[in-house]
Amino acid sequence: MSKKSQSKKQERLDRLNYFGKTLVRRCSSQCELCEASSVSLHIFEVEPVPNEPELSHCLMICQQCEQNLKYPKKMQVDHWRCLSKTMWSEVIAAKVVALVVLQFLAADHAWAQEALEIAYIEETEQEWIAQWSLS
């Protein structure tokens, strides 16, 4: 990695870390997807990642959620049963992630399909969901 790209990456991380206190207050030190507490939380940017970091695209999530999102083919499916609650979150980014993961799981898991059938999705949320998929 060149010095210029390292510098840009560090600059982005610094901007994301600026959101840290606001995110920790919002999440009450719990993962915003699975509500795990007493675990290390990390800032996660929800796809599509904007050119400049935006608070509305950021979540505080645990390592298990992060690994499941990074490597969906190795996903621990039962971990995501919590999404039937997360899909009603007032944090739009959390709701979007929940719905994207449920869509990914719905083909093979009836509980995920059933959750999607009762989901209420705003038009702006649907547009966001359409821009991102797990693969």
Order of helices and strands: HHEEHHHHH
Oligomer: single chain
Q: Classify the beta-strand content into a percent band.
A: 5-15%
Tally of separate helices = 7
Overall description:
With 135 residues, this protein is mainly alpha-helical. The protein has one domain. Helix content is 50%, strand content 7%. It is built from 7 helices and 2 strands; from the N terminus they run H-H-E-E-H-H-H-H-H. Strands 1-2 form a two-stranded antiparallel ribbon. Helix 5 crosses helix 6 and helix 5 crosses helix 7. The longest helix has 16 residues. The protein is globular and about 45 Å long.
What are its keywords?
135 residues; mainly alpha; two-stranded antiparallel ribbon; 7 helices; globular
Question: Which helices and strands occur, and which strands form pairs?
Answer:
Blueprint: H1 3-18, H2 20-27, E1 41-45, E2 58-62, H3 63-70, H4 83-86, H5 92-106, H6 110-117, H7 123-130
Antiparallel strand pairs: 1-2
